[in-house]
Amino acid sequence: MARPPILTLSDISLGFGGDPVFSGLDLAVQQGDRVALVGRNGSGKSTLMKIMAGLVEPDTGERFLSPGLSVGYMEQEPDFSGYATLGDFAAAGLPPGEEYRVAIAAEGLKLLADQEPARASGGERRRAALARIIAEAPDLMLLDEPTNHLDIHAISWLEAHLAASRSAFVLISHDRAFLRALSQAILWVDRGLVRRQDTGFAGFEEWRDRVFDEEDQQRHKLDRRIKAEGRWAVEGISARRKRNQGRVRRLQAMREERAGQIARQGVARLEVEAGAKSGKLVIEAKNIAKAFAGQPIVSDFSIRIGRGERVALVGPNGAGKTTLVNLLIGRLAPDQGQVRLGTGLEVALFDQNRAALDPDATLWDTLTQDAELGVSGKNDQIMVRGSPRHVVGYLKDFLFDERQARGPVRALSGGEKARLLLARLLARPSNLLVLDEPTNDLDVETLDLLQEVLDDYDGTVILVSHDRDFVDRVASTTIAMEGDGRAVIYAGGWSDYRAQADARAPAPVAAKAAVVKPAGGKAKPEILRERTAGLSYTEAHRLKELPDLMARLEAEIARLETFLSDPDLFTTQPTKFAKASDGLVERQQKLAAAEAEWLDLAERAEAE
After folding, report:
1. What confidence tens digit (pLDDT) does each residue in 225-237 have?
2. Architecture of domain 527-607
3. What is the mean pLDDT of the chain?
4. Bridge partner list, 193
5. How far apart are CA 458 and CA 156, in angstroms?
6. pLDDT attached to residue 537
7. Is 154 exposed, middle or buried (0-12, 13-18, 19+ CB in 10 A)?
8. 438 to each of 418, 455, 595, how far by Cα in Å?
9. Which single residue of 132, 228, 247, 535 has CA 20 to 30 Å from 354?
10. What is the Cα Rg of the chain in Å?
11. Which residues have C-beta within 8 Å of that of residue 307, sequence separation ≥ 6?
């Protein structure tokens, strides 16, 4: 017997005084659904999620939650009133004895649970909201940009946790790798319509392009019919036209249909012009070191960056990525060693904190009151890579309309602020582009365009990002910040770095006598399943969870290996072969990591 859906929306309509955001919307979220909610910035994704959460009341229609089932929403701006710490907020509503769930989430998300909310940053507050919904484990989790403000390691933990969760979830994210790993269905919000396809995010772009192609064909056919009927209306004999008023009315209806078709929103016209060529040597660092309050950030690090290279820095939050970038571009002096900059450098910097944006300034003033662009705010033109452009026209290239031009920066969404900062950055020539977390809040299409721009850019790029897919697409060299001052250089992007790091990692130490090994040779916890002395509460709980996780991964690996054993699969179904191969490698890596983690915890438990 089929189980009822968790949540149903029927005939939902919503508008905010202008064109409707949604009209006649119907959708259902089933138990076990793992849905990616995608769409352009400003298309209404967050609004739809708030309707699903019951936080926004639609103008018409009904929201129905199946009795006995629960929905949790990750708040963007949570209210911490009455809570002494972030951990207290995250644990609110949990039954007694279940507080360990917060400890597990806090450890994985790197949340300082004992921090006072008043002293917490926006990112820390969002992590507390995420920890709360993870600890609650409702039947349906609604997650709006859960990976924002998380580093790569925390994103990996969240990905593994959601993959193992029994909850259904709908998530908004611009992290392609995250969406590919987790989604099994897509809800696409586009021009007031919500389309669903029961395939993972990996097939989204092909589906989107197919829909657009079909729209273009239908529009072309309608244009031809209108043209033919219009010629008849002009050239036809008057008497005949009088006898065919129905045909005239149909022509008018077709014209109204064509006028009512909603044009697709264009993509931002990102263009970046390299300035005068720098020398072949852009940056050379020799044995540099930097520490703060006795804590090493970088120790004995050397690198030589040539013209045209794409260098990405990855690592946990607080590992020193931005500090190393500032050392390399000369904004910060090293404690020891030396940095030599090449000749003729013109640096353009994208700041992750959006510090270059005054929230009280208008978009117009943000572009026209810029000394570096040679403008004072008293005219309506700016110089864009050497050519004059009208402010509004240039803003339209970045998908801002004329009404927004005179509005304040504070009214913009995170994605719109990122686009505005890119507009400032790309208006000036440069030959060294420094991008510190440029991918936060950008939609998939703008990320694609930014990648293409960087591919064509003639200068050098230094990139800090937690977006694994974007690093893979852009970087030719990756610097991994591994903590305690260690910064290790790897060839290639994120996937290349992980493969090389795994290859150089030492084999896990064999467990002691208390670990029983079956005939297959893989360590399995038998005696130590209940032996957790010396471990923290979170570690003890993790030690008990790992055997089930390892068993599940082994079963998935076996299924994929059986599937890939078909000798004709590669030639007959190359897409499925590639997807299954990627899935096999990913699960093998997860199993190796889980086994290493279990061996470490088991050995420590036994040592006590």
Report:
1. 656 655 555 555 4
2. Orthogonal Bundle (1.10)
3. 80
4. 190
5. 33
6. 65
7. buried
8. 7, 15, 35
9. 132
10. 28
11. 277, 278, 279, 280, 281, 282, 342, 431, 459, 460
| Residue 423 burial class via C-beta count within 10 angstroms: exposed 0-12, middle 13-18, buried 19 and up | buried
Tokens of 236: 């036809």
Eight-class DSSP state of 94: P
CA distance readout (Å), 295 to 152, 316, 333, 482: 22, 16, 16, 14
Largest CA distance in the chain: 103
Token pair recorded at residue 547: 């055997």
277, two tokens: 């060529």
Q: List beta partners, residue 36.
A: 171, 186
b/e 84-93 (16+ beta carbons within 10 angstroms → b):
ebbbbbbbee
Is residue 406 within 8 Å of residue 252, measured between CB atoms? Answer: no
pLDDT reported for residue 329: 94
- Residue reference for tokens 């570690």: 539
- How far is residue 421's CA from residue 539's CA, in Å, rounded to a whole number? 42
Q: Beta 140-144 vs 168-172: how paired, if at all?
A: parallel
Q: Is 419 helix (H, G, I), strand (E, B) or coil?
A: helix
**How many whole angstroms separate alpha carbon 128 and alpha carbon 90?**
6
Pairwise CA distance, residues 450 & 289, whole Å:
33
Residue listed under structure tokens 């919307």: 25
Collect all residues with Cβ–Cβ distance below 8 Å to 102 and sequence separation of at least 6.
87, 90, 91, 94, 113, 131, 132, 135
CA distances from 507 to 55, 484, 520, 551, 590 (A): 50, 22, 18, 21, 15
**Exposure on the CB side of residue 482, measured as CA atoms within 13 A:** 14
Task: Please say whether the structural domain 281-503 has been given the CATH code 3.40.50.300.
Answer: yes
Q: How many CB atoms neighbour CB 241 within 10 A?
A: 15
Cβ 396 vs Cβ 364: under 8 Å: no
Identify whether the C-beta of residue 130 lies closer than 8 Å to the C-beta of residue 72.
no
Mean pLDDT of 295-311: 93
Q: Are 65 and 90 in contact (CB under 8 A)?
A: no
Burial of 73 (C-beta count, 10 Å sphere; 0-12/13-18/19+): buried
Residue 109: other Cβ atoms inside 10 A: 26
Answer whether residue 166 shows pLDDT above 80. Answer: yes
DSSP 481: E
Q: Residue 426 contacts by C-beta under 8 Å, 6 or more apart in sequence?
A: 270, 271, 272, 348, 385, 453
pLDDT of residue 437: 84
Instruction: Report yes or no: 385 and 449 within 8 Å, Cβ to Cβ.
Output: no
Which pairing describes strands 20-29 and 7-15: parallel, antiparallel, or unpaired?
antiparallel
- Determine phi and psi for 297, rounding to 5 degrees: -100, -45
Fold of 7-203: Rossmann fold (3.40.50)
Smallest CA-to-CA distance from 317 within 149, 191, 473 is with 149
Report the DSSP beta bridge partners of residue 27. Answer: 9
Q: What tokens does 253 get? A: 């209806």
Q: Are strands 34-39 and 185-190 parallel, antiparallel or unpaired?
A: parallel
Averaged pLDDT for residues 571-578: 72
List of residues 6+ apart from 316 with CB closer than 8 A: 110, 151, 152, 153, 154, 481, 483
Report, as an integer, the average pLDDT of 391-413.
Answer: 83
> Which residue from 354, 359, 360, 379 is spatially nearest to 369, judged by alpha carbons?
379
